[in-house]
Design brief:
Shape: elongated
Mean pLDDT: 77
Number of strands: 12
Order of helices and strands: HHHEEEEEEEEEEEE
CATH class of the largest domain: Mainly Beta
Helix content: 25-40%
CATH architecture of the largest domain: Beta Barrel
Radius of gyration: 50 Å
Largest sheet: 6 strands, antiparallel, barrel
Strand order of the largest sheet: 1-2-5-4-3-12
CATH topology of the largest domain: Thrombin, subunit H
Number of helices: 3
Amino acid sequence: MMYQTRHTKRSFFNSSFFKTLVIFLLIMMFALVLNVFTPMRSLVLEIVSPFSRIGNFFYSNLNKIPNFFSDKNKIIEENKRLLNEITNNHLNIADYESVKYENQKLREELKIKPAGNFIAASVIAKSPQIPADSLFLDKGIEGGINSGDLVLAGERILIGKIVKVSKNKATASLSSFADAVSYGYVARTLEPLEIEGGGGGSIKAKVPIDFDIAIGDKIMIGGSFDFLAAIVGVIEEDHSSGFKNILMSLPVDVSRINMVFVLPIIRE
């Protein structure tokens, strides 16, 4: 049996040709878009540029990573050094304040210690740590202090007396202690005057309305020495009763006192 062979003609315009043509046209169109249509080219560049910038950022900063860790270690070491310096400075300040306090105590004692047989004592507590108008001292019987001794804040400035004493400690009651009574006189006129503690650093007196006394007058207390005990601050006249109410204060600000001088009284 014989078969007739059929010859198929291959067309030039087959599928491969068309694929190639499409690819060529796309390339040409892309070239035209980039070279002719400038706005379109700008749009493409705008789309691509962020990615380009990100790549450039990472590339330019990649070599800085080792420096970052190196700088961080330097900062840690610097912080440690500064902390050590701060600690040392605090210790130096504490030492300085201690020396300054001791120096102040010595200067106060040398400068204002009255002439005579006085005993210097440091104030270790005052109001509000202890009852108002009181001082707690660091010396007692072993230091030569006894109940009834006078307490001075400086040269001839009387502020109270010792009311309680132990082996190494003593309590002083100020002249302003409530209901504490003392007898003195007005320095300007030498007129006798009874004064009484009013509490809270105040001292009061009541005198006849014709009693000669003025604001600023100094009230003295006599004895083996004459001591300044109070200064007149307010005078209130009560004509209906015929008396004057005198308000006075201690000669010094007790809150600023760190050292006092105790004068032992003579005992038979």
